[in-house]
Amino acid sequence: MTLGSVLRLVLLTLVVGHVISSRNRLQKVQTVVKSLARQIMLQQMGVEEKLRQDGGSGLKQIRLDLDGPKLYYVTSHSGLTMNHIHDHSSTIRTLGVGAGQYVLNGVEFRTRHENFKLQMPGKTKLNGEVEDIPFPPVPQNILAMPTVEQQINELRQYFLAFSKSDTRIRNYTPYFRPVLCYLEGAWVNKTENLKPHLMEGDHGVDIETYFDLQERNRFNGHTGKVSLRENHPLLPTIISKISDFGSPTYGQWDYRILCYPIDDSPHYEGYLKLSILQPLDDLSVRLSRNLPWYLYQMSPSARFSIQHRWDNKDKYFYYRDYLMQEIPGRDNQMVDINETSFGGVWFNGGYRTAKVLNVGKYHHRYKGFISYRSDMLGYSDPNAYFAETTQEDVVPVSLENKGQLTVKRNTWAIPLEIVYLTPLLSWNPYNITHIPDKDYVTRDGRHGGNTPTTAYDGYHDELFHITPIEFFAGDDPDYAFAKRVGVLDSRGMLRNLTASGTRVFLPNIPDVGVIRTRFPIVPIHGEFSPPWKEINALKKIVKEMHKYGEFLYQKLVNP
Fold it and tell me: What is the H or E stretch that residue 428 is in?
């Protein structure tokens, strides 16, 4: 063997050894990266599980708008208004709710200022498809009346019947339709550009990527400087999967607010009456706002719960469960998914018959077999509703058990509020023309003034004025929300109208009064923690001592 051959052999041996060594080091690095990424995933799971056990899914905090010398003055889930709900009644479909800090199945996030629409999931499985919720019709006997004055008087009777839940006055139920609005969240795999719905509307995010949104929130958190218009949600990102080579796949939190019509429930006497929506007594809110109990229900600071008389005891299935299980997840209205995990079939927890559960709709109770008992999803969260979906942009989770691979994609939801849609959304007695072009309605400086040259020419979806001002108490300063607006009808005549969109409270209606149409029912995260449960029990005893005196250490003595 020549010297050159020996040198080449030595060089080859060194190169091969170096390659093998480098490959081993690379494999070790990949192993370490995979271990670190998995540890991050486990830490995220620990954070979520702690939030699940600290309380239930629900609202945690709204932006501070009140302060004072006592702790109960400071804004929590309610302040000047519950969840910062507010009116956009001059628009045809917009409902206002402020930015809120929420927990949804262990995921904590913050919404932007949300002016959501009266829209519901679409009829096809097209991802993100929504459609407008139909408005209630106007009673035919009103439309047949020859004068606007007669129509006003008769329509007031329908509102009186609605306010008293009395069909003997008028059969009001077909014309005052409740909808359930809900907050839906999911982990999605599109982690670069913001979802289009976050960039829409008056409070659309003014940046384009999730990275920029995260940097904005880091800046806001360190400096305390935030968008005065509450345009920037705080949305977490997770590692959802690790490849064999140690490369992470990310999941981005996404949410939306939609509504869904409430059909009559045969299990609960059909129509959802106003009397079923009962106020929940938040003493800190009442004391700070100086609200005695008899005024609290008609305060914008109040929150409510669905309390049918059949629900006033320990049960496994409640009215709210029936309502939520009609709402479809991301597969929209045509969804039909049966549970097949671990070889079982789930049945609907609200029925004693063999009704298979459609897990593509929001539910948290089920039956593993036909029985009288319903089991609950999760460990201790009574508020998180689950729905499965086939949408591929939702992050999947998988589990292999006894050689069988199960892959699931889930979204979660909580109820936000009950909203009653009224005939005012459809009633147009002066035949005001709908104009798609807003600039035409406001051309030449038209601003809704009280002259033919300054009045709006027709109505636009964002200038929705078709209700005669006379229906309410006119320009009574005590009911300033019934603001007079000048609008030209189809013949060019000036009409005095007011906003016709959905309101928290309708302005005073003569011989009827002020009516509430929006009822926040969002659960509160902390109230399902042990301290809140204890405090609520104490509140019950203290406020009704004569009824619960046996729970006191000393016998109550009448004065």
Answer: none
User: Which one-letter DSSP state was computed for residue 447?
Assistant: -
CB 486 within 8 A of CB 495: yes
Backbone φ and ψ of 59, nearest 5°? -75, 135
Residue 334 near residue 123 (C-beta atoms within 8 A): yes
Could you give the C-alpha distances from 503 to 118, 297, 420, 448, in angstroms and in order?
A: 12, 16, 10, 20
The predicted-structure confidence for 506-543, as pLDDT tens digits, reads as follows 999 999 999 999 999 999 998 888 888 888 888 888 88
Q: Residue 378: which H helix or E strand, with range?
A: none
Give the separation between CA 501 and CA 539, rounded to whole angstroms: 38
Distance CA 290, CA 78 (A): 14
Rounded to a whole number of angstroms, the CA Rg of the chain reads 29
User: Is the CB of residue 468 less than 8 Å from the CB of residue 496?
Assistant: yes
Q: Which two tokens stand for residue 531?
A: 């301290």
Q: Which of 18, 417, 30, 494 shows the shortest CA–CA distance to 257? A: 417
In our burial notation (b when 16+ CB lie closer than 10 A, e otherwise), range 204-216 reads ebebeebeebeeb
Summarize pLDDT for 3-19 with one digit per residue, the tens.
555 455 545 565 555 55
Strands (E) in 325-438, as ranges, are: 347-348, 365-367, 375-376, 385-388, 396-401, 404-421
Under DSSP, the state recorded for 138 is P
Q: Which residues contact 470 (CB under 8 A, 6 or more apart)?
A: 148, 149, 152, 496
The CA distance from 326 to 264, in Å, is 11
Q: How far is CA 551 from CA 97, 272, 542, 548, 558, in A?
A: 40, 35, 10, 6, 16
Number of CB atoms found within 10 A of residue 171's CB: 11
Residue 460 buriedness (CB in 10 A; 0-12 / 13-18 / 19+):
buried
Q: Give the 3-state secondary structure of residue 486.
A: strand
Q: What are phi and psi of 472, to 5 degrees?
A: -95, -165
Alpha-carbon torsion, ordered 82, 83, 86, 92, to 10 deg: -130
Given a cut of 50, whether residue 372 has pLDDT beyond it is: yes
Query: Residues 78-131: pLDDT tens digits?
Result: 888 999 999 999 999 999 998 899 999 999 999 988 889 999 999 988 888 999
**CA-CA distance, 539 to 542, in Å (whole number)?**
5
Cβ neighbours of 237 (radius 10 Å): 16
The most distant pair of C-alpha atoms in the chain lies apart, rounded to whole Å, by: 119
d(CA 199, CA 214): 15
Judged by DSSP in three states, 179 sits in strand
User: What global pTM score does this model have?
Assistant: 0.90
Residues 6+ apart with CB under 8 A from 492: 452
What's the pLDDT at 202? Answer: 67
Q: How far apart are CA 542 and CA 547, in angstroms?
A: 10
